[in-house]
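Re: the request from the purification team.
They wanted to know what the chain is likely to look like in 3D before they choose a buffer screen. I agreed to run a prediction and write the result into the notebook, where they can find it.
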Amino acid sequence: MTSNEELTGRTYVVTGSASGIGAATATLLRARGAEVIGCDLDNAEVHADISNPEGRISLIDQITAHGRIDAVLAIAGGGRTGLLQSNYFGTVATLEGLRPLLARGNAPRAVAVSSTSSLAPADDRIVQACLDGDEPTAIAHLETHAPMDGYGIAKRALNRWIRRSAPTPDWAGSGIALNAVAPGVVDTPAAAWILADEEVRQAIETTAPQPFGGFPGKPEWVASVLCWLTSPENQFVTGQIIFADGGAEAKLIGDHHWQ
């Protein structure tokens, strides 16, 4: 368990810090002694909108002006519009843009928030456009062929980017652990539309049950995983997509990966 003493003197960047998992994570980090630079549209130390290139540049510039950082937690990306822009391109821009600053930190760590939605079938053309860094093409394909699937596609592409990037010289070679945490359905403002409609809620709970912890999960449960992955205690975990989902991924996938 991470102690206050281990996080004292460490500086953490938390995007999406104004609500949901981001707010729970920022609160937990501060309680354990860390300095937190919260980033969000409002009610944060840094105001920036990562759904567009200008906002991403502003976020990087504002944090760079702050000075040394030790960890980046790219949590922002909920909501119902601009999902591909925020959840993939904004998240990757945040991590890549802060990587040089992070590399100068103490026991540098980075983590992004994915989702069990990444397990859903996805249009490979859109995923590939994301991985190619071609935002206009990815958005055009999404709007034409899969307008309702932006969130899951973004998270699937993010998982693949994490897996590709983590073991490279820029990340592991620079001593930076890079992972993702994929929550199931958690009681956050971004998931309010799921929880408010009883038919939708029951359908999702049936198709993606969360037998451990129940439905919905609590933001604090995901926050504790994020905090450990970005603490100095994490000495050997990188390139992983960790499903903090009450067992949903195990129920959906079973032992498929090990056959």
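For the purification team: Residues 83-102 form the longest helix (20 residues).
Please add any questions underneath this entry.
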